[in-house]
Write a structure and sequence with these properties.
Helices cover 78% and strands 0% of the residues. It has 193 residues and is mostly helical. The protein is elongated, with a radius of gyration of 19 Å.
């Protein structure tokens, strides 16, 4: 490790790569272990905190995920991806007002990032602000018109708000872009019955 440090080689690079591979392949316990080891060596590594928070969310340990992600945004308040993941963790615990605050922080930092806009739209939807959810999804679709998850979410919001024709248009567009999306067929069939 001393040689690696002196030569400019990141001693955690191997561990970071291993953790990323474990995460990519769904080996959550091994990913968690590797990320925690990295954080023991560098407790201010906010990108690693975010990765650990995501792993904890995938294993449905949302309270732990929130603690880790909160620490990441405390250390790096402009870390939009961590704000987005923190919002998702709050949503999973039905803590929608907190989710909304985090999603707003993310979108304020990266207003053209469709993932952050999707999470913000979901937050608005969950607190019953359907029109704000729709306008947020529309902003995302202006940036990325082929984003099927945004189209699907907007279709649901249109359906809830009574705008059936707009919902149908969203679901049909989803199907044309991703014919294997069963959810779109299901939602469309329920609208037409």
């Amino acid at each position: 490790a001393a040689f690696a440090k002196a030569s400019g080689i990141d001693p955690n690079a191997r561990l970071v790569a291993e953790a990323a591979e474990h995460r990519r392949t769904g080996r959550w316990a091994k990913a968690e272990s590797a990320y925690r080891e990295i954080l023991r060596a560098d407790p201010t590594a906010v990108k690693i905190m975010r990765e650990l928070g995501v792993v904890l969310s995938h294993t449905r340990r949302f309270e732990e995920s929130i603690m880790v992600l909160k620490r990441a945004v405390e250390l790096s308040p402009t870390f939009a991806a961590a704000w987005t993941d923190l919002s998702i963790a709050f949503q999973m615990l039905d803590r929608y007002e907190e989710a909304l605050d985090c999603a707003l922080s993310a979108v304020n930092l990266v207003p053209d990032q469709t993932r952050a806009l999707m999470v913000l739209g979901e937050s608005y939807f969950q607190i019953g602000k359907i029109d704000k959810a729709i306008s947020t999804y529309e902003k995302g679709l202006k940036i990325e018109p082929d984003n099927v998850p945004l189209l699907s979410a907007m279709g649901i919001a249109f359906r809830i708000s009574g705008r059936q024709q707009d919902a149908i248009r969203c679901y049909e567009t989803c199907i044309s872009k991703m014919p294997s999306l069963g959810e779109a067929y299901y939602n469309l069939a329920n609208l037409k019955t």
